[in-house]
């Protein structure tokens, strides 16, 4: 049996690529130096994979920003406005990713969206009616040859044409069907080129197939693949799916001339059933995704070997694979010096997963693997997990009642109380919470962590930052203020660190988008709150201003979704535990005079099952109640805000309203405010702040631009329900652009008020 992975992380084991790219943005290093960093990262990873004994080593899984963007550039899907500026190829690429404002022009970034059910964000490519799709790029070929020159045969990876068509944004009249022939031909040219260079297997990623697939979808897939099949000669084609099962189309796909089919046994609940329900063609290979590419727990060898045996018994030729790209897990446990071995033994990051693949490969070759030390040690891990049950937490959870999920009184009555209590102007202005995490903020945290600063020094520093931040907000003229979140490295890690039941890593970074990485905590055991977490910061901030100060918390679903979750209890149970801990914090803030509390559910949409039929049963039926459990205990005049980072919730709009917050702010600026219609149609009750400008880009929006956005909003949202705010937290931005943008935002709000 051979082994494979779908893709590897690419930011570098110590985020080398991130740092080099950011230097390149600041013009501190040249393009040649950046390219060299990329080459070095690729070389190291290929050699590591080769040394581990991996049979199918991927190439073209590297990216300077994002694979969807790479694919767009490869096939010339570059909107005119980015071509006009006359940038170099790399600058055009980065302008599409992040926007550009400077001597050569002023272009916005392309939209960014979450990649299926992950916290990775991809760039949404656009086609215009006159876009000439053809193979104009060279990246997969260069990378294939680069590996070949090191003596390493790789399996080039491309995002498949069907998924690409499904995720494209169509700016003109042409739709997917109209684009399919030229896109298919361009892919065919790429496949031909890879074959001519010597590629023996080519992987086409089609995660879109794990959605509910219709007959039309299947037809589109067949159409776009027709030229590719015609171009196939010496190379084999692997159709790779992940993030779920392909129950609707598996049989149809088996009829097509692919040489390998990759399926996900981890997230694909029906995968086993589907695979065993029909005969497997003799001329194909099944790439069985049995190692979790998304979570960090050790693989359970007895279970995996059992499935492998069943597949072999059914006469199915198998390559052992990961369930998805390892992009979603950190690089290596080797950099974790603080975590005790008794914990570490339970984890496998990307590098350790390579070891697992190798061990499973040799175990699977034995007639009785159960006597092997590797097998015995692995099996033992699953019977001995220390330190994870907290009886008090379980007891508390067992006593919650239905009424604990409902806030009293109902929305309208609360809204009236709050109107009187706050006397805010029409179109209140606010921000989402964080202010720029400038170098001094990060340095202070590092100094504290290393023990170079005392707790007192650290607190004083943060208090000064809070005071400056409040002064700035008052000067800018914002209505509802925030303390700035300077004490937080990350909105989830910060809470995790203050709750019992979490474990932390030092260097376990995972790419979120572009150069942004996150370090998700690990939920190890039952969760509870040790003591007040944010109360001292928020009350200090409130003491400095007459304006209402918004307390800032992260909600339970987001904490769960941005952590590595447990696999020994249900997600629902884990989330309710977190909800109770955050509820304690909400009530504490209220008791201490904080009258507006924002509970961020940035990642609520993220884990929505990809198949509609699973949405409620498997997710929303507990995710929404978890949020309600957090805030149901507050007084009518306390205003509860929430924030979601993702504008695409048109389809779950009722569920969002059911969260029963008083105000919701969300990201809308990068998606053309498409959500407004559905807010109107669905009589959305919660007051809304659809972000008026994009904080993911350093460009400063003009007053006019913001006013245009607000006017669009006012066409669909009643004036008394509209808030004005940026579309997300400001922590990744610089101070200068932040002040300039907020100044324009407040000015726009003032001018619009005058128009009323
Ligand atoms: N309150 C958080 C912040 O402003 C929200 C961040 C987010 O939505 N990702 O940083
Ligand atoms: Zn956000």
Overall structural class, as computed from helix and strand content, comes to alpha/beta
Question: Which stretches are low in confidence, meaning pLDDT under 50 for 5 or more residues running?
Answer: none
| Shape annotation | globular
Look at the structure and give the mean pLDDT: 96
Query: What is the alpha-carbon Rg in Å?
Result: 26 Å
Catalytic activity: 5-methyltetrahydropteroyltri-L-glutamate + L-homocysteine = tetrahydropteroyltri-L-glutamate + L-methionine
Family: Belongs to the vitamin-B12 independent methionine synthase family.
Pfam family, one: Meth_synt_1
InterPro entries: Cbl-indep_Met_Synth_N, Cobalamin-indep_Met_synthase, Met_Synth_C/arc, UROD/MetE-like_sf
Description:
With 756 residues, the chain is an alpha/beta fold. 42% of the residues lie in helices and 13% in strands. It is globular and about 75 Å long. The model has no long low-confidence stretch (mean pLDDT 96). The protein binds glutamine and zinc ion (ZN). Residues 432-434, 485, 491, 552, 600, 602, 643, 645, 728-729, 731 line the site of glutamine (GLN). Residues 432, 602, 643, 645, 667, 728-729 line the site of zinc ion.
